[in-house]
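Side project, low priority. Logging it here so it doesn't get lost.
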Amino acid sequence: MQIIKRYHDAWMFAAFLLLFVYMMALAPDVFGAAGPDVKMTKVKGGCYTMGDDSAAAGNEEKPAHEVCVDDFQLGTYEVTEAQWLAVMQKPSPSGISSGADFPVRGISWNDAKEFLNILNSVTGLNYRLPTEAEWEYAAKNGKQQIYAGTSDSKTVAEYACFAGSCKAAPLAVGHKKPNSHGIYDMSGNVMEWVNDRFDSRYYKQSPKTNPKGDPFGVNRVLRGGSYNSVANQIRTTCREYLAPDIRKNEVGFRLALTPLP
């Protein structure tokens, strides 16, 4: 009986060892960019003037109003094709591909939420889309900055891939200069989904602290403009929107995360 027990224990150990080796072999595919390869930048919260009352702004950007946000983290880069593939185990649903280090695009708001659900189940964290208020605060560094990184139209091409600086296609993430937070491509490259529902009159009734957008709307907000946008569309206050199931070639997304570690 002792011999049989030893044989059984040895067999169980061998089976466990094989299972461990198999799981380790799978780990790069399962975890890949879902965890440590998602670079985040800590953004210290504060109060700032959200929106724009200038002649360049649309009515949906008015009135300019004070908003305060808590500390949060924002993706240093837009979500890339490599990160999408590592998490979803399949290419972008749009079928568009420029390369591993390029922003994933042709992504609907619903697609982005599916990515987040899987990413969070793998990492045990609470990645999400930023709120519109968080996005703008990070883009302009809490100041009335026209573009992410500069207010000077003569230097905006150094910070943004848009119609005035790119040839109808995005660049690999991080190719241009970062803004003062050290975050890249918040103006141009691809338009970025935020979590908020769109309401053109929301700024007239927005709460001051951590606004989360209209609770009843259908369309979702896009920020930052894209490689096809003119300069006025890549301003830090510019608001665009689409239905959550619509995919456009110019659209991708960026991650947010709270609480801070």
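Brief comment: The longest helix spans residues 2-31.
Revisit when time allows.
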